[in-house]
Amino acid sequence: MVSVQELYELWATDGYEELKEALGESLAPRGPGWLFELFAELQPQPNQLVLDIGARDAAGAIELVRRHGLRAIALDPVPLHCERARQAVADAGYADSIDVVEGAIENLPLDDASVDWIWCRDVLVHVDARRGLAECARVLRPGGAMVAYVTLATERLEPQERAEIARLAAIEPESFTSAGIENAAREAGLVTLRVERLGSEWRERLIEDGDVDTAVGLLAVARLDRRRSELIERFGAQAVDVARNGFLWGAYQLLGKLSPTVFVWERHA
After folding, report:
1. Are the C-beta atoms of 50 and 61 separated by less than 8 Å?
2. Phi, psi at residue 200, to the nearest 5°?
3. Cβ(217)–Cβ(251) below 8 Å
4. What is d(CA 251, CA 259) in angstroms, rounded to the nearest whole number?
5. In the prediction, which pLDDT does 14 show?
6. How far apart are CA 117 and CA 42, in angstroms?
7. Residue 156 CB: number of other CB atoms within 10 A?
8. What's the 3-state SS for the chain?
9. CB atoms near residue 127 (< 10 Å)
10. What is the pLDDT of residues 191-225, one digit of tens each?
11. For an engineered disulfide with 140, which of 61, 109, 257, 267 has Cβ 3.0 to 4.6 Å away?
């Protein structure tokens, strides 16, 4: 244990000031665009078919088609997302290359061995990963690969925090750990080609680029906690709790409580 004297002596040293200055230096973190670079390393070929699971507004599918000349299926279980995806695809001029399909990862409306690639962002923690990855393995052609981005709990996340996040972010507890995801992939017959544990990198990059201000989110949490009763009366407890959880999500990544992780799996013959 550090004594009071040791603590104040440490704070007063030049070395401690140098340490704080060193922490102002960027570590050149990877950002969200890196995921497309990783996919490119897999060498997709023009006219191959990529399935974008949890496509939302089809931004990922559109970018993959634009970069590689692929055909795509943008799949999402939410009707509103599908409406927005169809509009985005039409606006981008890719209506002939991208089909928007309403459906869920646990029951993919596709034939066996019918797609060359799967792109899956922010989906696996919200579903039964065993069922979902079994379906992915079913529709992948032999030799086909899947790129999955997922934010997972680490050992630093306290049990109460874990329970709150799971409740408020619609997370399946068994799909919220690296071991759970890796076991599900193994049971599905998917072979791991690569695992990238990004930790705080994307969040650092977003902050450095000025796209996100975590201080604003933490300030919102502080204000929300002070005004909780009033805000619940106006907006309802669920909305208030979900908003608080959302503001903490990025902070938890910076603190190492949550770790964005990328898996690349291949279906062998």
Report:
1. yes
2. -90, 0
3. yes
4. 11
5. 86
6. 10
7. 12
8. CCCHHHHHHHHCCHHHHHHHHHCCCCCCCCCCCHHHHHHHHCCCCCCCEEEEECCCCCHHHHHHHHHHCCEEEEEECCHHHHHHHHHHHHHHCCCCCEEEEECCHHHCCCCCCCEEEEEEECCHHHCCHHHHHHHHHHHEEEEEEEEEEEEEECCCCCHHHHHHHHHHCCCCHHHCCHHHHHHHHHHHCEEEEEEEECCCHHHHHHHHCCCCCHHHHHHHHHHHHHCHHHHHHHHCHHHHHHHHHHHHHHHHHHCCCEEEEEEEEEECC
9. 21
10. 999 999 999 999 999 999 999 999 999 999 999 99
11. 267
pLDDT per position as a tens digit, 99-139: 999 999 999 999 999 999 999 999 999 999 999 999 999 99
266 touches 145 (CB < 8 A): yes
Residue 233 region by backbone torsions, left for phi larger than 0, else alpha for psi between -120 and 50, else beta: alpha
Nearest alpha-carbon partner for 262 in 28, 73, 37: 37
Amino acid letter for position 28:
A
- Give the residue among 213, 243, 228, 196 at the shortest CA–CA distance from 35: 196
Topology classification of domain 30-199+256-267:
Rossmann fold (3.40.50)
Are 31 and 52 in contact by the 8 Å Cβ rule? The answer is no
Q: Would you say how long the chain is, in residues?
A: 269
